[in-house]
């Protein structure tokens, strides 16, 4: 570009410029403007990370956490507001332990009539009086560990003072234990809560994030007999990271949830140091009866069951119905129809679980009493689709361990290990080669056709290699939204693109000038330089303008929409500027028709290879999975959340309860 401009200036000094030289002279300010735009965006003033600024970010994070946890609690309660006041007791553990009250409860109902004689603190008060602030919440399956952790998060956020850390609940099944706890926190804020990495790192470095780690028992598969593995490689590695977590000279505060059997199996190998272990007690008969009475719509239909539970508070059925999960299942299954007295014939907990889970999906799918609208899906459809999703989660976390998160971009292996990759490569080749017939309309059909075919083949090969068999998601994209990981890439790409554009322009201009095409070299070099610079500046300015704290909580529909919008914008901008640069150069060197064909092929290839790849692959996956999953998969998963079968977890979906996930994985539709 500089050489082109210098030559144009020399021509001007001699007394005249032809049109090509004028373009060369104008290319200098235009190309410089593109470079300046990219560098200015890169050097956009980034506000400091002092304590006052970090506290402001923490206040924003607290609002987003509150939004997420309120939605989670509603989903865990089956779209109902009735809560159970869980009780828990402190358990003595060998070795170093934290000081804590001997017992506690979930909440204290300030609006209840009369004074409450129970002196036990609520979960927030219990945690604040624990020294140091390291709490392990354990219990039996379905005892309400996640519910209690969510209640703690909401209580701490509601009573949070300026400068207090923000509790953030993190599913432990997704933890890559090669990363330390601070790295896990930064990754979670970046990928799951849509925060810019610089802000996430500042929040973690200033101790403004309180980790609430949910599901230590979900990190490793069970043994063949269903018991926890005492070796538990990933869980033990996680506890080692937690023991290394410090805040100043003291053990760093945190909250951990686990099934009691799994945690006891770890105590002999990797106990969590300086922590208080509380075990959730079974729900007593009186609150269990109160819960069922308030959830049922037809007291006469429920009377035989309620009378039996009241008369036998220590019986087998009362003990089986002493967990929030089974109480919620019972209330949902028999809420509008069926005879709750059927439970009286069941003799053990396993039979009760089989009975309730087999009727759970039909009860959820069936319309409410008096609802004239037919159900959107049949029970068999819902069961079959959820069974396939549950089977997919078993062993998809890498190295064979199970996971809990369903990311729509990571479901492509469900359609077959090679089917989606092959179909995606063919689709990419066809889209890029769509401009091939136009090559025969140009004066140089042979050369253009060869160029287009080579370009299409190269891009198709790149697309096929981009989805390697080891990839568990789309190019390691975790649906981060408009302010996710791609910002980091766009910090570097515009500068590199501008430098490459200028270098290409100089080389092209010099080569053509040496071949005797001086004016063509000037124009071609200038066009490639300024288009590359302008495109780089535009794309990075778009990304830089999005750097900031998110304003709303992340959910899968919002994350998928934002990811698609970003992909389209990025693909259009990349294809537009790439096609302009190449097409204009070819048009100047050969002829306009040839330049149009080559430019269009370049634009399509650039768009396919950049922002449109994720959306295209997701579409290919849906087309390849028509017999396995619904085509409108996102709508079905959103409906499942509203129906109480699944729940949102940041930009991913989870089954409402691990017991439901495991049962569905083991029980296909007969």
Describe the structure.
- The protein has helices at residues 2-14, 19-42, 51-76, 123-128, 145-158, 181-191, 197-205, 233-243, 260-267, 285-295, 299-311, 316-320, 324-333, 349-365, 379-393, 419-432, 445-466, 486-514, 518-544, 556-589, 592-609, 612-624, 633-643, 658-666, and strands at residues 87-91, 103-105, 134-139, 166-171, 209-214, 246-247, 250-251, 254-259, 276-280, 646-649, 652-655.
- By secondary structure, it is α/β, with parallel strands linked by helices.
- The strands form 3 sheets. Strands 2-1-9-3-8-5-4 form a 7-stranded mixed beta sheet. Strands 6-7 form a two-stranded antiparallel ribbon.
Net shape:
globular
Q: What is the alpha-carbon Rg in Å?
A: 31 Å
Instruction: Supply the number of helical segments.
Output: 24
- The helical percent reads 55-70%
Mean pLDDT: 75
Number of strands: 11
Strand content: 5-15%
> Pairing-aware structural class of the strands and helices?
alpha/beta
Biggest sheet, spatial arrangement of strands: 2-1-9-3-8-5-4
- How is the biggest beta sheet arranged? 7 strands, mixed
Spatial gap, N to C terminus: 70 Å
Poorly predicted parts: 1-17, 19-32, 34-49, 461-494, 540-547
């Amino acid at each position: 570009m500089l050489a082109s401009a210098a030559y144009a200036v020399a021509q001007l000094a001699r007394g005249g410029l032809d049109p090509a030289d004028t373009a060369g002279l104008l290319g200098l300010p235009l190309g410089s403007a593109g470079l300046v735009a990219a560098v200015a965006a890169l050097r956009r003033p980034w506000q400091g990370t002092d304590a006052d600024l970090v506290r402001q970010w923490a206040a924003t994070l607290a609002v987003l956490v509150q939004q997420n946890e309120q939605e989670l609690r509603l989903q865990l309660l089956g779209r109902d507001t009735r809560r159970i006041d869980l009780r828990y007791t402190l358990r003595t553990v060998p070795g170093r332990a934290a000081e804590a009250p001997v017992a506690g409860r979930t909440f204290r109902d300030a609006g209840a009539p009369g004074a409450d004689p129970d002196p036990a603190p609520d979960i927030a008060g219990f945690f604040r009086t624990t020294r140091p602030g390291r709490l392990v919440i354990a219990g039996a399956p379905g005892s309400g560990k996640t519910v209690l952790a969510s209640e703690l998060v909401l209580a701490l956020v509601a009573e949070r003072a300026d400068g207090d850390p923000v509790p953030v609940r993190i599913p432990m099944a997704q933890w890559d234990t090669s990363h330390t706890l601070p790295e896990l926190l930064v990754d979670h804020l970046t990928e799951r809560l849509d925060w810019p990495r610089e802000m996430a790192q500042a929040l973690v470095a200033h101790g403004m994030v309180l980790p609430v780690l949910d599901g230590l028992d979900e990190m490793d598969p069970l043994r063949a007999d269903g018991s926890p593995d005492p070796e538990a490689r990933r869980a033990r590695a996680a506890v080692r990271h937690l023991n290394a977590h410090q805040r100043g000279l003291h053990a760093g505060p945190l909250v951990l949830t686990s099934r009691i059997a799994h945690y006891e199996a770890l105590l002999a190998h990797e106990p969590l140091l300086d922590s208080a272990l509380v075990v959730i007690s079974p729900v007593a008969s009186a609150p269990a009866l109160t819960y069922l009475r308030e959830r049922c719509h037809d007291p006469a239909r429920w009377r035989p069951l309620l009378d039996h539970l009241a008369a036998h508070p220590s019986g087998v059925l009362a003990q089986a119905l002493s967990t929030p999960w089974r109480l919620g299942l019972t209330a949902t299954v028999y809420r509008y129809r069926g005879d709750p007295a059927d439970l009286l014939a069941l003799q053990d907990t396993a039979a009760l679980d089989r009975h309730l889970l087999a009727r759970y999906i039909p009860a959820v799918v069936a319309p409410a009493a008096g609802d004239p609208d037919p159900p959107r899906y049949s029970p068999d459809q819902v069961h079959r689709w959820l069974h396939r999703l549950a089977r997919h989660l078993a062993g998809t976390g890498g190295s064979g361990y199970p996971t809990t998160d369903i990311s729509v971009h990571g479901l492509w292996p469900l359609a077959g290990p090679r089917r989606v990759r092959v179909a995606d490569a063919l689709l990419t080749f066809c889209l890029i080669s769509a401009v091939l017939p136009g090559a025969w309309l140009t004066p140089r059909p042979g050369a253009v056709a060869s160029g287009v075919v080579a370009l299409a083949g190269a891009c198709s090969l790149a697309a096929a290699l981009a989805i390697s068999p080891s990839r568990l998601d789309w190019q390691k994209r975790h649906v981060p939204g408009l302010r996710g990981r791609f910002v980091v890439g766009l910090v570097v790409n515009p500068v590199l693109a501008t430098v490459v554009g200028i270098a290409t322009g100089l080389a092209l201009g010099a080569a053509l000038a040496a071949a005797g095409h001086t004016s063509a070299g000037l124009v071609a070099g200038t066009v490639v330089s300024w288009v590359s610079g302008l495109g780089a500046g535009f794309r990075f300015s778009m990304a830089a303008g999005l750097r900031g704290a998110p304003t709303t909580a992340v959910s899968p529909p919002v994350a998928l929409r934002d990811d698609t919008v970003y992909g389209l914008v990025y693909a259009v901008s990349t294809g537009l500027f790439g096609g302009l640069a190449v097409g204009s150069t070819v048009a100047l060197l050969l002829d306009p028709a040839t330049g149009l064909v080559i430019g269009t092929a370049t634009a399509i290839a650039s768009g396919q290879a950049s922002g449109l790849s994720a959306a295209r692959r997701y579409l290919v996956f849906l087309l390849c999975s028509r017999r396995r999953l619904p085509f409108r998969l996102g709508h079905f998963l959103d409906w499942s959340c509203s129906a109480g079968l699944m729940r949102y977890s940041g930009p991913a979906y989870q089954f409402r309860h691990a017991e439901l996930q495991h049962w569905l994985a083991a029980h296909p539709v007969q």
